[in-house]
Design goal:
Radius of gyration of chain B: 20 Å
Number of strands of chain A: 20
CATH class of the largest domain in chain A: Alpha Beta
Mean pLDDT of chain A: 87
Order of helices and strands of chain B: EEEEEHEEEEEEHEHEHEEEHEHEHE
Number of helices of chain A: 20
CATH architecture of the largest domain in chain A: 2-Layer Sandwich
Largest sheet of chain B: 7 strands, mixed
CATH superfamily of the largest domain in chain B: Ribonuclease Z/Hydroxyacylglutathione hydrolase-like
CATH class of the largest domain in chain B: Alpha Beta
Oligomer: heterodimer
Largest interface: A-B, 24 and 24 residues
Strand content of chain A: 15-25%
Distance between the termini of chain B: 35 Å
Largest sheet of chain A: 7 strands, antiparallel
Chain lengths: 556, 338
Amino acid sequence: MEAFSSLLEQLYYTSGTKAKAQLIANYIANTPDPDRGWAIAAMAGTLRFDFFKRNTVKNLITEHTDPELFAMSYDYVGEVSETVAHLWPYSEPTDSLPSLTEVVETFSSVSKNKVSETLANYLTIMTPAQRWALLKLGTRGLRIGVSARSIKQILADYGNKDVKEIETLWHAVTPPYTEMLAWLEGDADKPDIENAVTFHPVMLSHPIEDSDIDAFEDNTWQIENKYDGIRVQLAVKSERSATKKTANKNASQSSDEDTPDRALFSRTGDDISHSFPDLLDTVDGNMVLDGELLVIHNLEGGANNATSSQPDVDTFNALQQRLNKKKPSKALQASLPVGLIVYDALVLDGKDLTEKTLKERRHALNKWFQHNKSERLFLSETLSATSPESLRELHAHVCQNRAVEGLMLKRLESKYIPGRPKGQWFKWKRDPLVVDAVMMYAQRGHGKRSSFYSDYTFGAWEDNQLLPIGKAYSGFTDEELKKLDNWVRRNAVGRFGPVLEVKKELVLEVAFDAVHPSSRHKSGVALRFPRIHRIRWDKPADEADTLANVKALIES
Amino acid sequence: MHPSTWLKADDTGLYCEPGEFYIDPMHEVATALVTHGHADHARAGHHNVYASKETLAIMQTRYGENMATHQYAVTLGKTVAFNEVKATFYPAGHILGSTQILIEYAGYRVVVSGDYKRRHDPTCPPFEVVPCDVLITEATFGLPVFRHPPIEHEIEKLLHSLRVFPQRCHLVGAYALGKCQRVILALREAGYTKPIYLHGAQLKLCHLYEQLGIDLGELIPVSDVADKKTLAGEVVIAPPSALADRWSRSLPNVRPVMASGWMQIRARAKQKNAELPLIISDHCDWPELIQTIEEVNPKEVWVTHGREDALMYQAEKMGFKARALSLVGYDEEDQGGN
C-alpha cells in the first residue's frame, strides 16, 4: 500500500504524460504480483466493484468528527476523500501496512456490516496521503490524469508490444493481470482469449466543418440519423440459444465463473451488460455490432422485417432511467424496453470485417439482418442527399425531429479504424438551443477547480422575479473561470452554506440540447446538458430571456 | 466600556477611537501601530508609525527611509500611551520583528494578535501568551484540515528530491519576507551548505536579515550566474509568481516547488503548478489556534482574517463567546506570507 500511495502521490503532482508513464513503468517493474496488477486495474478503471460506498465514508467521518466542522472543511477543500484524509482523527503510524492485494482481498470478502469498521481500522493506521489513496481506490474515483488508453500504451511499451495487441486482450483478461504481465515480461505465452467476448475499440467521428459540407459529393457517403441515445458495442459469441446470463460482478472471483458469452460495452469499453439483460437475452450468434442503444417501444417490429418497420424511439430522458441501474426491475424493463439501432458490424458470423470498407460491411450487415431475427435489433436507416445543398436541406429536415440529434456522415470507403481517424466519419449535430439567463447562485467546484466558484445556477425572468432554470459548470475557459470566480466573490450578497447568492446582474448565454417540463424545479423546466456558451458582460440583466421564452422551446 | 464600542473595524483597518490610532491600516493615517512588515499589514505614508525596530527596518527596506514622517521603534513589553489608552507590543512568532499588541482601556484588555504561529522560528522570539479579555485572532488556516507537518519533514522532501533529480533545477516559490529566509535556515539546519540562489526580488530582504544578525549562509543572485545551466541540481528561491513567468524559463529543467501552508490542499498545489508542494507556513495551523485560545483563555474571541466560521464555531464549542471581525485588505487569496 505504501508503494501504491507513493505512486499516486507522484502521479498527482507530475504533469506531462511522458513523466507519468515513466513513473508507472517504474512501478510495474519494481512491484511484485499481484499488487502491481491491482494497481493497474485501479488506474485503468477496471476494478469491478466499489470497496465501500461514498456514503459509508461520509457516515464514518461524521461519527468520528464534528459534522459541522466536516461540512465547513469539505466546502473549502472541495473533495470528500481529501477532507476525510486530513480530518481522520487518529494516527498510529505503523510499519506493517497491508499490501494493496490484502486491501483488495479484504474488501472483496468482508461481510457488508463489517465494511465500515474495516475501513475505519485502515484509516487509523495510515498517513493522510495513504488514506487519500485508499479512499480514491475504494470508491473507484482515482483521477490521476492517465487514461485507460495510456495505461495500455504504457503496458505495450513495457513489454515491447504493439498497443493493438493489448487492446484486443484487454477485455478478456481480468485483474490482477498476472498472466498478461508474465507475457509482457517474456515469461509466458500470450493469454488465450479464443472464447472470450471482448471489447473492440470503437471508431469515432469528427464534428463537421462548413468546408466538409461544401465538399460533399454524391455516392461517397453513408448518411444516417444521429440518434440521441448512447453509443454501444454488442459482442456475442454464442451459438447456443439465448440463456439468461449475468455479468460477473466480482473481479477476484471471475476465474471461477463461466466466462460470459455476450456483453454490452459503452463507447469507452465499460461493461454495462448488467443494466440491460432484456437486450442481451434476446441476441445470439458470433458477432460484434456497433450501434445506438435507445428505449424502443415497438420491439415486435424488429429485425425480422427491418426494411418496413422503423423503431419507435423514445427520448434520451427515457433511456437515462435505464442507465446505471445495476439490477433493473422487471417493471422498468417492461415499461422502458431497450433496443439497438445497428449501424455497423466489426464481426459477423465470426468473421472480422474491420479491414473491409463500410460499403462492404453494410452489405454484409444487410444480408445478416435478412437471416437473423431479433426483436431488439434494428438496422439503421440510410438517408440520401446528392449535393451540399440537398445535404443542408436534409439536415434541417431531420433536426425538426427532436428524437434525432443531427446527421452522421460516414465515408463509404472507410475501414473500421479504432480512434478518430481524420476525414472518415463526421457528426453534424443540430445547433444547440440558447437562452440568455441571469446568474443567481454560485458554488465552489470540485477536483481541480476546488476553491473556484465554478458551478452556476442561473434563472429566467417571470414578471419581476428570476426563477432558476438550471445549473452549469462547463463551457468556459480557465481564463474566463478566473474572471467569473472573481466576479462572484465581489458580487456576493448572501450565503447558504456552500452556496453564494450573487447580485442579479450577470447575463450568461446558456447553450443546451433540449428543454423538458419538470416538476422538480420551481420554474417547471429542466435543461438537457446546459453549458455556458458565452458570458455577456455587456448585457443588462433585465434584457435576459423570460421563462415564457424558455418554455416555448419545449418539444412537444 | 465594552471594547466593541471603542475598537472598530472600518474601511481603513482596526481603529481605536479613544487612542486615535489604527492598527495595520491599509491607507495613510495620522497614527498607525503596525504588527509586522507584510504588505497586507504595513503600508507606507503614515504620519506616525509605531512598530518593532525590525518591522520599521523592513518597512524602510521596502518603502524607503521616508516611509513615514515619524517612526517610533517600540520596545517589546514596554507600554506606550495614546491619550487614555495604553498599548504594549509582544512577540508573535510570525516573522522577523512580528508583534501582537495589547490594548488597555476602560478596564479592558484586548490583544490584537496580528499574524502569529506557535512553532519554533529561528528568526524571531516565540509567541507570548498575554492574558486578556478579548483576543483578536487570525484564522488563515482556521479549518481542522490544516495540520502543518514539522518543517524538518518538509525540507527533507526537498532534499530527497534533490537527490532523486540531480539534473533538475529546484525552483522554490516562497514569499520574499519571512518564508524565504525560513526555508533557507531550515535547509541550513538540515546540513545543506551549498550556495542558495535567489531571484532579484528576494535579495534586499535577505540582506536585511543578515544585517540584523541572522546568518543565511552563502547566497548568490541568479542574475550573477553567467551560465544558467550550472543551476541544474541547485536550489533557487523566487517569489511564487515567478514560478510560472518568463523569468523561470532561463533555468534548466525546472522542478517547481512551492513552500506555503496552502500546499496541504492538493487542488491548491495543483493550481499553482507545484510538482513538489512543501507545507511550510508562518501561521498557526488548526491545533495551534485552539491551543492559543485555550492558553490565552480570554472572555471573548474575535476572529478575523480567513476562515472565521469554523474557528468561531470551535471557540463557542469550547465555551468562549466568539464573533467575526471583518477587516479590509485581508482576502484568503492574498499571498501575504502564508
